[in-house]
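BUG: 3D viewer hangs when loading the predicted structure for this chain

Environment: internal workstation, default settings.
Expected: structure renders.
Actual: progress bar stalls at 90%.

Input used:
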Amino acid sequence: MSKLEEDDEAIGSGIRRRINRMTPPVPARSVVQAHLQPPEKRSVTIRQRHTASLGLALTAVIAVLGCLAFRAVALTGQSSQAGPGASASPVGTSSLSSAAASSIATPAPSSSSSAVELAKIKLTAPAFGLAYDQARDSLWYADMESSQPTLYQYNIASGKTAQRPLPPGSDSGVLDHVVLAPDGSVWVTTGYRIVRVDPASGSVLTHTFPLDDPDANSAALDGNAQSPGTWISAITFDGAGLALLARHNVTSLVGYDASLNLVDRIPMPASMVGPGDLAYSNGVIYAAPYHSGGAGVLFSEQGVLVGTTQPVYSFGVSGSTVAALGPNGLSRIGSDASTTPWVQAIQDVSPYDRLVLTAGGAAVYLYSTAVIEWITPDSGVEGSMSLPSVHLMVANPLGSMVPAVQQDQVGAIASDATGSIWYVDVTALELVHAQLT
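Structure tokens produced before the viewer hung:
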């Protein structure tokens, strides 16, 4: 059996392993910096718990710090995807030695005076996809890490959570997308698999992609390439409700119907391969390059180039409004690729940020500063909220204790019908409801 055949067998049979770096790497729950760091797959740091033993948790951190030129700077939680062969430990289970962290952990203020947290719902695992369902006034998110993958529905009015088991697979719980289709079904993508759930009928359909694709480029199957693989990198829906999926290192989009049949393949303009984000509005497809912050590309459903945009990491859509977040800030993008600057004062934008459009405005989570900013329709920053952080004393390789900070991180963000936001704190394992006061 060839190496590629082994890869396909592993994916199809649900074996949790990575072969020749062709599958999306499993996230290591550490602060080690590695070269392959997709925004959806970034690992998360461990939030220090006040109710648990504060003497548990930095052994893995100290091992890394011993190999680095340690400086007494705040650790802001910028952990990332480990490279090939790295093992993964569930969030909250990595341990710190009592010698590494002092028993005095002081939480920083969780929000500014202009924002308030209205509710916190505990999660069983990190969630990197979050979708608001206006018809059901619910939020959908998935746990694809557990041995029993599960889709959760949180009803905002009742405050109750329902769960639906999903078919087991070889998912690693990374690269998750949870999106609501125009017909009310919920689609979950993770790694090489898509799952469609119809809440009305209870029907669950699943499809696993093979490793190869007819439109994959040469880097897709090269284990020595910088970023090999053909995992699902983005999803959106066209005007007819067809699911359009992008795959890493693939030069076309594939269209799947509600029965998960492949019914369309759309060639992308030559400048776009394996988009990191997709949007659709008024017959036009918007594509952002994967992770690079390069120019966005707009094209028709026939693959005809409409135009290019300024550098972009991700899109936000509300009705006919499409916004783009990139190195130059936040802009509105027309269906003819015209660009209208919205907020250019946003600092340190990165591919790890999260954007959602609210009722007329927007909310942006900035990974580098762990801050959520509310943006007004007329380009102002209306308010902001800092995520919780915990101050620790950490031992450096020489044995001295130095101050450090562990910062909570956002895995996904959504806006409800009132315009307030919900986000997943993947460090604290919480779904949080927040709004400006």
